[in-house]
């Protein structure tokens, strides 16, 4: 599994959003972008993380950051998740896990003491030139957005 690091070129992608639109990394060229990868919509940890991003969206946007959430869920499940939790940023479906793999967010991880293959909860900040400005792997759902805001000096 390849992990991205600061300075690496962010892997390009085009995925379907919960609104049915095609969203590409290139849509955010010239802008700062936060991409977070999460295991499954409507699970407790993922709901906590997604809602934390929702609640921090205005300060992030005010500082020039857009937010995307990516999971292996299909668009239909993402529609329900966005509606139920009033999520106002794009949620992207990656059911074939190609983008998850490209970002190093799919692979072996420990879950309740067992080694399993799945989504590695990860967050990336992409700079306006399309390079990784910050890469965080195996983040905790609770408190992660606050930690990210502090790292971005937005706390």
Report the count of strand segments. 9
- Element-by-element helix/strand order: EEEHEHEHEEEEH
Strand content: 25-35%
Helix share of residues? 25-40%
Oligomer status: single chain
Structural class by secondary-structure content: alpha+beta
Sheet of most strands: 7 strands, mixed
Give me the Rg, rounded.
Answer: 14 Å
Average pLDDT score? 94
Low-pLDDT regions: none
Treating each run of at least 4 consecutive H or I residues as one helix, how many helices? 4
- The CA-CA distance between the termini, in Å, is 32 Å
Dominant shape: globular
Could you please describe the fold and organization of this structure?
Helices cover 28% and strands 29% of the residues. The protein has helices spanning 44-62, 75-85, 98-102, 144-151, and strands at residues 14-17, 22-24, 32-37, 65-71, 91-93, 106-111, 114-119, 122-126, 132-136. The strands form two sheets. The chain has a seven-stranded mixed beta sheet with strand order 2-1-5-4-3-8-9, with helices on one face. The chain has a two-stranded antiparallel sheet with strand order 6-7. Helix 1 (44-62) runs parallel beside helix 4. The longest helix has 19 residues, at 44-62.
Give a short summary of the structure:
With 155 residues, this protein is an alpha+beta fold. Helices cover 28% and strands 29% of the residues.
